[in-house]
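User: Hello! I'm new to structural biology and keep hearing that structure can be predicted from sequence alone. Could you demonstrate with SpoU rRNA methylase family protein? Please show me the input and the output so I can see what each looks like.

Assistant: Of course. The first part below is the input, the amino acid sequence of SpoU rRNA methylase family protein. The second part is the output, the predicted structure written as tokens.
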Amino acid sequence: MKKKTILELDRVSQEEFKKKNKIPLIVILDNVRSLNNVGSVFRTSDAFLVKAVYLCGITAPPPHPEIHKTALGAEDSVEWHYFEDTNAAVDKLHEEGYIVYAIEQVENSIILSDLQLNKDCKYAVVLGNEVKGVQQSVVDKCDQSIEIPQFGTKHSLNVSVTAGLVIWDFFKMLR
């Protein structure tokens, strides 16, 4: 089996990407401090046609060399908006008819593998700070919480890894 060359991958331009139909998903980063994590979320969002990324609180917006290091230009292709307060972003999305999920370990959460989505609905997922997770005030505003089951000695995943798992599952169900 031969690896594909860059030309065989048939990449689209940023202009073509912006015209593509996106999945009805917005990814909200709630006080994510690592610029490498932010860049990684942009890159995954580009790969799976996420509608937009909302950067909230201390989450740094582009342009920034540390974001670019992992985003590799996806920060220029994926639509993004900055909100000083994550609660304001969630309120705005609710007003626009989005169903908003916190990705957090909470009572009565939905296990990611049990999640059922409706292709006629619009969704947003909130990913939290690397240490503190999603703020409780934000969890309280969300319609529900999704939990990724874990079976080892650790009870958390890196936020960019979590984003990859969640975005991929949403893509499979909404595309």
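User: So the tokens describe the shape?

Assistant: Right, they're a compact way of writing down the 3D structure. Reading them back into a model, for example: The mean pLDDT is 97.
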